[in-house]
Amino acid sequence: MNKEEILGIVWKCSLCGFCPKDMECPAFDDDARWESSYARGKVAIVHGMIKNPELGFQNSELAKQQLFSCAGCGHCLYICPSGVNVPEIVMTGKKILVDANNYPESHGNIIKNLKELRNPFGENAPRAQKWEELRKNINAETVYFPGCMAIYRTPQIALNSIELFKILDEDIKVLENETCCSGILYRIGHGRLLPEILKPMLDELHERPPKQIIFTCPGCLTSFKNIFSSELQEKFKDTKLLHFIQYLYDKISKLGDIEKKVELLLSGKIKKPIIWHDPCHLARDLEIHDEPRKILNAIKIPFIEFKQNRLDSNCCGSGSGVRSAFPELAEKTTLKRLEEMKDLGAKTLLSACPFCEYQYSTVASKFNFEIEVLDFNTLLMGLLRAGE
């Protein structure tokens, strides 16, 4: 969207107060309680930067703090009765701040790491034997895209996903030129760098187009489907894109009786109450709600829900560079989810987003919450091993 289009959207905001009253914004600081922390306050900041650039809002610390503290969860768009696209407005604001060289230092480190080592952590990719074998399997028609969180921070998720592929007789490969999806660049206002960072990986997809790409991370899938420009998407235009949950549901549903065919005879194996967390990208960007619940019900895994779930689910608080730039703010949001989980009597948090799971695990450990955090695929593989 250009600035004129953004101004047209801004005027739709009626200042009704639904965003501060009817949702829990992860960017809202409970201690400060500034209007600028709310969605409508951020809209006002961006309006000021576009309408009156001579006032210098784009150079202010307030604008940097309030716009880059937005986790991009999309909850405000879901609850807004006027349909104001706050996430799009905030993204425009972030780009204006980037043009003014007014953005968090930690985001500069992310950019440097992506340029030099193709991941936001600035680490060398693991060269495990299993990984090398999958890179050499160049004729496979299914690409597994684990994402940088599953590779560098939660490797067990990637390894368990690979084991599930084996159980389901899926011949897979990983890309030789695999790169972070780089959606983080877009979400922190540096989307113009995407073509440069992604070129080797997308060229590989174009030269050997797979039939499908299966993603562990809903953020990565959202990048491929919703963030990449039409020019970038042209590189894989005939390729089916699926989250692992969708793939798993489609695959085992075709087999008929899930329990017998896939041998998930696991009723009674779960002793601790499980709660399901809908990740923002999975729930709102991709609208994948039913598949995980149907699989859990089919294999008789009892679970409970957060009070707000599906499209109305609350964010873990760490996305869009918030965890790196404002770690204490991200922690506050995560702690609210952990406290709610505790109040509901759950001992295990289950999700399907490596980034959410890493945030929950680290914060739970830091603040001594006696809970277990599991990825969907890790849960299934653990139950399969227990049933052997």
Automatic annotation (TrEMBL):
Q: Would the keyword ATP-binding be found if you checked this record's keyword annotation?
A: no
Does Transport show up as a keyword for this record?
Answer: no
Q: Report the GO terms under cellular component.
A: plasma membrane
Q: Which UniProt keywords apply?
A: 4Fe-4S, Iron, Iron-sulfur, Metal-binding, Oxidoreductase
Question: Looking at the Swiss-Prot or TrEMBL record, what is one Pfam family this protein matches?
Answer: Fer4_8
Q: Which GO terms describe its molecular function?
A: 4 iron, 4 sulfur cluster binding; metal ion binding; oxidoreductase activity
PROSITE patterns linked to this entry = 4FE4S_FER_1 (PS00198), 4FE4S_FER_2 (PS51379)
- Taking every annotated instance into account, which residue ranges of this chain make up the domain 4Fe-4S ferredoxin-type? 61-90
Q: What is this protein called?
A: 4Fe-4S ferredoxin-type domain-containing protein
